[in-house]
Design brief:
The structure is a homodimer. Chain A is α/β, with parallel strands linked by helices. Chain A has eleven helices and 13 strands. The first copy, chain A, has helices at residues 28-36, 56-59, 126-134, 148-153, 155-162, 172-179, 184-193, 234-249, 254-271, 278-281, 285-298, and strands spanning 3-6, 10-16, 19-26, 42-49, 65-73, 79-85, 92-98, 118-121, 141-145, 167-171, 198-202, 208-212, 217-220. In chain A, the strands form two sheets. In chain A, strands 5-4-1-8-9-10-11-12-13 form a nine-stranded mixed sheet, with helices on both faces. In chain A, α2 links the parallel β4 (42-49) and β5 (65-73). In chain A, α3 (126-134) packs parallel to α5, α8 (234-249) runs antiparallel to α9 and α9 crosses α11. The longest helix of chain A is centred in the last third of the chain and has 18 residues, at 254-271. The A-B interface holds A 87-89, 176, 182-186, 203, 205-207, 209, 217-222, 224-226, 228, 255, 258-259, 261-262, 296, 298-301 and B 87-89, 176, 182-186, 203, 205-207, 209, 217-222, 224-226, 228, 258-259, 261-262, 296, 298-301.
Chain lengths: 301, 301
């Protein structure tokens, strides 16, 4: 089924103990689309400035990603992010950020995207996420990401958004903050009570938790990756694998949601093995399925 | 098979967001023995002072724990620890500690303990762990715990110990420190190369990792506990469930090790549900087996 993503396209500069990747392609919509494209066609919605050095259609060549929703704004500049990771590389330090095109009005949804059934709203101001949703006619399963900034400064908007979506995907710090609760299982339960029927909590190298409003629970460790060169995009790749698998399956029952979490986990493990999109672009669906099986074996007792 | 544990008996005062437990029974050997006693008989080795207000034989009534190795030192005082947990309760802050009997010579091993096949050396100075091992004749599987203090200050002793044991159980911070490596899977591999054929890394609410020298790997999330009142003793209960299950099974092949990790995980989840030993003492083997099954289901996709 149709999967729409809206999010950022970024010019990233990333520093990790394994090296520096200067002015490379990044952004939530980019990682998401690459990850989701293993499972289903993707409708891409995002904006870049005239300075964007990447030909996205070329980068996504042979992948089922529709760029009808890619706006090139010749008066604007592309979003830029510079970040670095130290030590266990669990968290990025933002060294510099230029919002540029992200500070402008969001891209317009092409008519042919408006019937999208599966929708992923990557992290941005919740009011923009709401405005985007209002332009869609018939979404079946909407997932959104968010961050500490909005929980702190735009909680009223975020609460409105929560009532309009089916699934919230966020990290453990954000989940604790949003639910005002330290225990993650309880936090996930509290969040489902405020709107979404499903909450997915990403715990980085410690895996993830998914909880449904009815209490159904699933916990999964991360794939035990020995090679982690650059964690940038892991969360968006996870979301891409997750939503891509759901849209491809055309189902959102709990068994499918669990398998989608497992696919998200595995896809993210390929992302972090190299800088920028290199980890994902050299991966095949066969590699992903093989690693999924391996993960299933690794946790079996 | 016979399982020997040596470690501390403590008078603990613990403060968590759920309340204060003053002068309650604690200590690594105590938590370990209670946890292991669900699976196999335990030989207890430890020392207390004249001030010890607990009748251990009464506390362990009807449990297969042999106290022939409990030394009561009438001139000494019992080990005391006061600690507190905040927020997510992932780490204890030590508010006060009185080593007392732990600063003296270690307890003597009774003759009838010397043929013990499974041995757990709870955290103490590695030189004492080595001395203890030297008194045993015929151990089949020796596991030891350690801590940052010894890694920092007594690394040479610790390295000697590693060559004499089969399994090192430690937490993620300690594993990173000992291996001088951030990636936990790689760290576990490095540690197995320095001696033990098995390394178990405890990650608290994020579960655990077990790795064998041959590269065999198993990862397990923690049981998703909604009620965590007091994490004290979780690590020693984990070790108790782990070693108890191995000794009870009389096997240490990888399939048995994996199941032992799962049992350790489940037993620890009962420990943290209440203060001191209350969580464990009200638990039955049937409860443990039931939760083990539940954990197996919770991670299945």
């Amino acid at each position: 089924m149709s999967l729409l993503v809206t999010g950022s396209i970024g010019i990233d500069t990333v520093k990790t103990p394994f090296g520096v990747s200067k002015d490379c392609l990044g952004g939530s919509a980019v990682y998401f689309s690459m990850a989701a494209s293993f499972f289903t066609p993707v409708r891409f919605l995002g904006a870049i400035g005239a300075d964007c050095p990447f030909d996205l259609k070329k980068v996504f060549k042979k992948r089922p990603v529709d760029f009808a929703g890619l706006e090139v704004r010749y008066e604007s500049k592309t979003f830029r992010w510079a970040g670095s990771y130290q030590g266990a590389m669990n968290e990025a330090t933002t060294d510099a950020v230029e919002l540029n095109v992200l500070a402008e009005s969001p891209p317009k949804i092409p008519e042919e995207y408006k019937d999208s059934k599966f929708v992923f709203l990557a992290n941005t101001a919740p009011i923009l996420q709401i405005q985007l949703l209002e332009q869609l006619n018939n979404a079946k399963f909407v997932a959104a990401d968010t961050m500490n900034l909005w929980i702190k400064n735009n909680l009223a908007d975020l609460k409105r958004l929560l009532k309009k979506i089916d699934c919230l995907i966020l990290n453990e710090t954000e989940a604790r903050m949003l639910a005002n609760e330290h225990n993650l299982i309880t936090a996930a339960g509290k969040i489902t009570k405020s709107g979404p029927s499903v909450v997915v909590i990403k715990k980085g190298e410690s895996g993830s938790i998914i909880r449904q409003k009815n209490g159904d629970l699933f916990v999964l460790p991360a794939y035990p990756a020995m090679l982690v060169k650059d964690p940038t995009g892991a969360g968006d790749s996870f979301a891409g694998g997750f939503m891509g698998y759901l849209a491809g399956s055309k189902k959102t029952d709990f068994a499918t949601l669990k398998k989608a979490v497992a696919y998200g986990t595995v896809v993210a493990s390929f992302t972090i093995a190299d800088f920028s999109l290199k980890g994902l672009t050299k991966t095949t669906r066969r590699d992903i399925d093989k690693r999924l099986k391996e993960l299933g074996k690794l946790i079996k007792f």
